[in-house]
Amino acid sequence: MTQIAYDMDAVGLFLDIDGTLLDIAAKPHEVVVPDELVADLAALSKQLDGALALVSGRTIADIDSLFGSLRPRASGGHGAELRANPGGHVELATEPVPDTVREELEELASRNKGVMVEDKGVCIAVHYREEPTIGTALHLELAAILDGLGDRTLGILPGRLVYEIKHVSHDKGTAVRAFMATPPFHGRRPMFIGDDVTDQAGFAAAQAAGGFAYSVGRDYPGVKRGFDTPADVRAWIGATVGKAEAA
Ligand SMILES: O=P(O)(O)OC[C@H]1O[C@H](O[C@H]2O[C@H](CO)[C@@H](O)[C@H](O)[C@H]2O)[C@H](O)[C@@H](O)[C@@H]1O
Q1: Alpha helices, DSSP H, located in 67-126
Q2: Which of 26, 42, 123, 194 could disulfide-pair with 166, CB 3.0 to 4.6 Å?
Q3: Residue-range definition of the domain harbouring residue 113
Q4: pTM value?
């Protein structure tokens, strides 16, 4: 199901990855990126004069490892990394998470079965997909770690059976604003498509700039449910590209 009937010509498109473009997998490296999706994203980016960016909690290096030749405009690490031009320089908007935090998280994972730490440098994901029932207790432990270190620049962002330890100064909203300030996005209407709590800053930034927000598979206040599944998003991208090619 797709609820988007907007003329894409003047849009700057921001796409989340996990749960939006890609089906959720048991482990981060087990996601499947269809070849057709890579080709369709390249065609759609061209159709939008380059005004398409992937905006993810993953690092840009990880995005590149998944999307092969695409090397898209992108933000990684929840706004901490920005690549303004395809295949270009990756700018870091924040410092890496301090080693003291990293060490505490590794120690926590070592004594909690089912907790997996994904160290992304600028942020750290603490996954608990293998033990979904421990979410509340894990959040309390993470909050205690950050309180103990007294570092108010870091916060906890909940995602899909994951807590992201990240700098509070940057998120998907800061990434959208940074892209919208420069070509080829400047002067277009932002459209953000995402599925997760972590996408809410992106939804809000797009709407605040006079644009659109569409959710995938879940409802968020003030956001239109655009799609039921990532397969629907992929089909919509394919159809949008197809329509342009047929015109
Ligand atoms: O902002 P996104 O592009 O949606 O990325 C969010 C996080 O995605 C990955 O974790 C999530 O997807 C995994 C694969 O489906 C799944 O196994 C995990 O449970 C999810 O939390 C990624 O590992 C994180 O680094 C991203 O922040």
Answers
A1: 99-110
A2: 123
A3: 99-167
A4: 0.96
